[in-house]
Write a structure and sequence with these properties.
The protein is mainly β. It has five domains: about 150 residues, no CATH class; about 80 residues, no CATH class; about 110 residues, no CATH class; about 50 residues, no CATH class; about 150 residues, Jelly Rolls, CATH 2.60.120. The protein is about 0% helix and about 55% strand. A hairpin with a 2-residue loop joins strand 6 and strand 7. It is elongated. The two termini are about 70 Å apart. The relative contact order is 0.07.
Amino acid sequence: MTYFVQPNSSSQDLAGAINYILANLNTNFNPNFGTGIVNSTNTTATATNGQTTAYLYRYLDIAYADNGSGSSNFSSTPLSTNSFYGLRNTNTNVYSTNPADYVWYQINNTFSGGKALWYQTFGGLQINLVVATSAPATAYQQVPNGTPIDLTVVSTATNLQGRSGYAISTVTLGNTPATYTTTGNATFPPDNTWGGSEHWVANPPSYTASENVYQIDGIYNPSTNLTLWASPYLATLKVGSLSAINANLGTITAGTLNAVTVNSSVINSSTLNSNTINAATINSASSFAGSLTAATGTFTGSLSAATGSFSGTVSASTINSSTINSSTINAATINSASTFAGTISAGTINSSTINSSTINAGTTPPVIDSVNHTISSGAGGLINPNGTFAFGTTSSNIIDDGTGVYLNGLVLGGTNATSLLNLPTVGAYYNLFNFTVTKVASTVLGASGSIYFNTNNGTTSAYAISATWGLYLYNGSTYTLLQEFYHVGATYQYYLTSPGLFYSQLGSPFSYQNIFNQNTTQLSVGNYSLVASTINLSNYSSIGTSLGQSISATIVNANSYQYQIG
């Protein structure tokens, strides 16, 4: 509503000012800024003439309940058990379902037997409420269910209904056509009717510093099912939001604040839009667009500034800016197309380019030891402008100190040397190497050495030996064959007078290596053993006849190893 008008003001502004005068001819009252009540008959709607109240704010929500706190059977429609109705006066057209938002009044008996709440608005944000089974007079309308009543609309005998529409435009809208007619009570004029590519909606939309919100007012006639709209005007010139060339204020608490310059010690607002704001502290739940200059203080909310500066501390869930220059920024997310100078402490940084002399990550960033090619102190990450870097701790790290890239403490493993291991029994398992896997990663396992097969007899030597044996992986419950070896060949033969036996021997080197990774089977965390076992041993005469002599196997000079990288 407009409180100040000039000779060339529009008819809508003149009507709004007249309504305000009608509501405030008697100034001997103390308005309640919490409930919005300016003056009331102090009766309920069950009185003979009902309840008449003047309010501060535009919209009135009406609810129903069984008790005086609204906690029992709260409803947006009158139930047969309801004996109370609640009134809530605000500047928002969003209906509240919170009983604590309402001032509750008791009626005689309950809303049973067809009783309903009827209302008539007089202008000047005044309304009369009556409980009845039918309209007390032709200008009365039944209270809508779950929909705020617009107190700026004057009730008429023909039940004409006021409507409003809102649109965003970056240009000034025209004033022709002066009126436009649409069909129904939910339609709006087409886009670009007044030349700004505007699109009309029922509720005021969010907008940025480069945009303006326009409003159109219409009257819907139920008898013709038509809405007659007047030409648009700037919604920001309404007192629903405050506009001023200069404003020097102490503490501002407002839904929307639009101004060229605002100077204040404290500003609390859901939305701030201004070219320049100077304040010690700014608390905003929504967004700010423009130039923000503050010597000290904090900003909470969403900060969007195409140009300008902020001096102090910014604590915000999201900061969007073409350029950010600050000594310190604390934010969950920073999105910047250009540059930032200073120190960033943030959960997430999204930027096309990060340009910084040094990037440190960690409470105490690492220090590079160029002599020993490791981290001498600290932990975390370090990137220097010359390309050197360090990541990790003093015990496990990867660094580039300018002479090369070095990996420290990230190789885990062990080795074992076996000088002699007898395999006397076929099918039995004999341990070569025990090792532990501490994490799931690529594991290299290997072994190499020599194996000898021996047989002896008191009458003849074996001309040839055939032997099969294998290396197995044991995990504490299961033996898994890793590699099978097969040896066959003529033997080395000799005779010992004491103890008078003919000896035959076949020897051969062996080598095994495997990488357990995601392409095969990664080893789980646990203890393992590399073991050996003979599978089949045979010896033969010079004509190929099996001699059946006993054969022993011995592994000598074996080296086993296991390690992980990463």
